[in-house]
Every structure is written in C-alpha cells, then in structure tokens.
Amino acid sequence: MKQKIILLMIFFGITATTVNGQVEHTNGHASHTMKAKTSKKSLSPHTMTMAMIDGAHVHIDYSAPGVRDRVIFGGLVGFDRVWQAGAHNATWLQTDKDLVFSGKVLPAGKYGFFLIPGKQEWTVIFNFRWDQHGKDEYNETEDVLRLTVKPVDLKEVQEVLTYEVNKTGDKSGEIVFSWEKKKLDLPFTVK
C-alpha cells in the first residue's frame, strides 16, 4: 500500500515529508526528504531524499548519523578508506534514467554509494552491490563509476549527515552531501 501511495505521489508531482509519522505535502515541489517512522529513537535515523529531473526519478536512501561531539573525518571515518557514506546499511542511489557526472555515464539502476575521504580530495563510488551492511561486502571490482571531487569546508558544523537532490536546470541537478565541516557537490545531467 505504501509503495502505491509513493508511486501516485510521484505521478501527480506531489512531494511529502514525514517526521514522527506526520506527513506534510505540497504540489509542484521538485524534491523532498522523508524520515522513516521508527518505534525507538535512533541515533542514526533512516532517511531518504529524491527529486524528479527531466523525467528522471533520482532517489537516495541512507541512515543519518550525528556528529555528537566527535571528530568525523580523520577520526570516526578514517582518511583513505572506503566508507558506506552513512550509518548502518550502505547508502544507495536509484535512478530510472542515465545520469552523467563529469562526462561519465551512470546507467539507470540502483547502486551502493560509497566515499573515500582524503585530506585534499575525495573519491565518490557507485557500486553494483547496493544492499549490504556497511561496507562488509564492498568489492572494488563491482564499481560502476568513480569520481574524484574536492570537498568544500563549511563555516559551521552540520550536525546531522544530510543528502539533497536538487534540480538546477531543465536537464540538470546536483547531489549535495553535508556533514561535520565538509560538503560535496556532485552536479549531473540527465541523458
């Protein structure tokens, strides 16, 4: 039933946000974020964000940990190591149309989304194995696409890990990752 409602919302261009079981929705917005209802308060709640861009439904599903007075990059998340880009299960991205990042095509499909934070540059990874706990089953030979990006330093701490999918033009969008004092912008076009 829940899937049917979501499909109807997508078809009619309705967006929604749920927090603690309450739903807010409006017509005509390009993107939204939803938090799954949980019976017990989680320190890293299951969250999703999505947008429709040139007919492409781009969806990211992740668990959103907080900083909670910890050193994240270079501490909890080590430099130069594969990280599942969220808490618990690997973060995943799904698109029903090909997306082009920096001239490289990500075919329509569902992918694990991993990051390798570095001191100067980060590696963004889209991997065939989207359904796994953390990075337990990550295998570099299953990578579909890798990108090298430079993070931007944030002036203030972003307490909770956040992803956004934003429409930036008729056929273009961006994925934005923000956490602790780092932000990544991943611009793309719909093929």
Automatic annotation (TrEMBL):
<dbReference type="InterPro" id="IPR021314">
    <property type="entry name" value="DUF2911"/>
</dbReference>
<feature type="signal peptide">
    <location>
        <begin position="1"/>
        <end position="21"/>
    </location>
</feature>
<dbReference type="Pfam" id="PF11138">
    <property type="entry name" value="DUF2911"/>
</dbReference>
<protein>
    <submittedName>
        <fullName>DUF2911 domain-containing protein</fullName>
    </submittedName>
</protein>
<keyword id="KW-0732">Signal</keyword>
